[in-house]
Amino acid sequence: MKARMFLCGVAVVAVVAGCTASGTAVPKTGIPAVSGAISASPSDAATSAARPSMTPGTFMEIGTVTGCPSAYVVAALAGDGKLIAAGCGQYNSTKQFDPLTGKVSEVDADTEAAIRAVTLQDGRVFVVIEMDDGALVVDSRSGKCGELIASPGNEDSPAIGANDATLLLNDGRVLIVGGEHDGQDYSAAYPYAELFDPTAGKISRTGSMKTARASFTAVKLADGRVLVAGGETGSDLNSVTSKAEIYDPATGKFAATGSLRKARYSAVGALLPGGKVLVVGGGDQDVNPLSSAEVFDPQTGKFAATGSMSAARGDDDGEPPLAVAMPDGRVVVMGGQDDDLNLIPSVEIYDPTTGKFTTGGEIGGPIDHLAGAFVQADGTLLVVGGNEGGSATVWRYQP
Length: 399
Hints:
The chain has 399 residues and is mostly beta strands. Helix content is 1%, strand content 37%. The protein has one domain: Kelch-type beta propeller (Neuraminidase), CATH 2.120.10.80.
């Protein structure tokens, strides 16, 4: 159906010093559980008042992550608010960027195979290692990590792979669902799902989706259940589906719900005030990028049309758009690819009160990849991106 590149840049990954994501398990370091959650940026609130005010719709470059000459760098915020950039170039090195000082330092971590991550309730970070069918738990404060936690999947029924979804559930467990994995071909969608229990330190199987899918939308609902919608399906990813279903952590099962109005893959979603979900962009069966958006109502199980973006934002080269729910209820959408596989520099903002998108400025370029966008205490976004020939750039963006 289409030729696509599946690199580790399709996901957000958090790593810290002392962790190695390689084919060999890391010796266990005996990290104790940490009481109290770590906020995404605990030092941010104390310093936000000192930052210069910004005009809405503008980007302010605050630094570069030198030594990351890669369009596929992945990034996340550590528990102390520092930006971790992994997969820097073909060297698979890791850098740490302090957004308060602009300083860059080396982190002793090889993240060649890390593809997804989520911060646990105790502040540690759960990192999915696709090549090894497992995961690591890392502690951003101690700079230590435990041994590789094996997935119960096997060669015939893997459950960790590229383009899955990894979400933190309300009870502290982590759901890993769907994706694709077929040796080095990355060509087969699968329906399997797994749960990581940080208390037990184990990954176990849970119920499977009704539809095998990869490159789909996954959003945790207000009640703690998880909506999965759309995606590529079939043994060779030759079909794009409109089907949707909901995972209930209480029962460990998926149940079908209403279908998308438009079949799409690599769309992005965000939870709206009141519990509805915005699903926007992505690509259709013919690999055309989409500008349309839909809103899912979990009370009725139906999707309804809403306003469309000015730009169609698809993904045919491992570059899906980003959607970030802001504290004021708006959703910032940026990135994604046009028909010529160029990263779209414009930003659009969805207002759930009007059901419309408005322009939100433009990212400075040239940028080939957006690794992540993270909400700060002052209402700005910390955005990191890169390109093939230079260092990763870090901006502060004011929606």
